[in-house]
Amino acid sequence: MGQNVGQTRDRDPDDAAPLRVLVVDDSQPQRRLLATLLKKWGYIVDEAASGEEALARAAESRPDVVMSDWMMPGMDGLQLCRQFRQRSAANYGYFILLTSKGKADDVARGLDAGADDFLTKPVNANELRARISAGERIIAMQRELSSQNEVIQATLRELQDAYDVIDRDLLQAKTIQESLVPDFDRAFDGGRVSLLLKPCGHIGGDLVGMFSPGPHRVGFYSIDVSGHGITSAMMTARIGSYLSNAHLEHNIAVARRFGRLNALRPPVSVARALNARLLADVGISEYFTMAYAIADLRRGIVRLVQAGHPHPLLIRADGEMRFVGQGGVPVGLIPGVSHDETVVRMQPGDRLLLYSDGFTEARLKTGGMLEEEGLLRLVSEAPPERCGRAFMDDLYDRLAGQMADGLDDDVSATLFEYTGTPSSD
């Protein structure tokens, strides 16, 4: 073996823990010579006379570096390398093959078996030291990566645990939000109201609803709170309490007359009251758009207020369609704002569709958004016999079939169908 030991240096005792090196060679003199050099340089050295013995020793005490002769009786160096890799996949070990083979094909075979480096026999001490040092650097980097990976994995587990908690809370919040809309389809004496609510996530910022304080009168609405997520969902819960169907005595749109609830406030008064209520809540920066209407089911008269919401669509029984409403400012933006009222006289078979911008601003596979023209097309393509929930479900299914990548925004709508007979006045 060629040596120039004088140019090598011992390991600094202040360095990190020394590497464990397993020397594998069927020649005892060769093993001892390599072991002597390695120990002199500060490494912990173990020896094995065969591949089988090397695997047994590696199982007992995990080596950082394996230095093995290629040509050995029984299990040769290539076979040892393959099995060593298979048995120690979780903990990387640097593998050096000692060989007199120097052809490219031989090197390729060794690399394919999992070897990291080669040393040509007879081994030069300086080259041996350099190869071990290179392996030491690679192992140090591998250990650092493993350590960082463990930190990342632990962080990911913590994040997953936190996500699971949030997910459970959101599912519960979804249940609570769904309770705000207990009835999605309800028939009245002279009309029917049907609701559609499709949040883009667990919870959303859209709200639809209806309520009736007595025979022949019904109020219904479509609301879209600014923003998305938890804040918007909390706002819908608050607004839902203002327009409660279950507790009409607390409903801001219902008036008490002669000691009982028997009147619906004018829509513009409701918009004004909601605007004042929202602006009075300290710390709330959210606002919402709204289309709110009340219907006199005996006469077929609908009074409507539009506050920044998309224009409601009036669908006549004969197929004629037109958008109605006066526009208006969203609720919760400007103190003292006033809104205009729109009055619509309906005939039996007429429909009024209130909807959020999740419809008109839906992104389509063909590019662009649905817009009002697309909504008119969807409605016109609906089978004429479809009504109530069937009409709403069909409308949404055909919208979803045209959308590019699912819901980017909540999609909601309220459909009022007039079935009564108007008076002759």
TrEMBL record:
Transmembrane segments: none
Keywords: Hydrolase, Phosphoprotein
PROSITE patterns hit by this protein: RESPONSE_REGULATORY
Residues recorded as bearing 4-aspartylphosphate in the entry: D69
One GO term of the biological process aspect: phosphorelay signal transduction system
GO molecular function per UniProt: phosphatase activity
Domain Response regulatory: start-end pairs: 20-136
Domain of life: Bacteria
Entry keyword annotation includes Hydrolase: yes
InterPro entries: Bact_Sigma-Reg, CheY-like_superfamily, PPM-type-like_dom_sf, PPM-type_phosphatase-like_dom, Sig_transdc_resp-reg_receiver
Protein name: Chemotaxis protein CheY
Species assigned in the record: Marinibacterium profundimaris
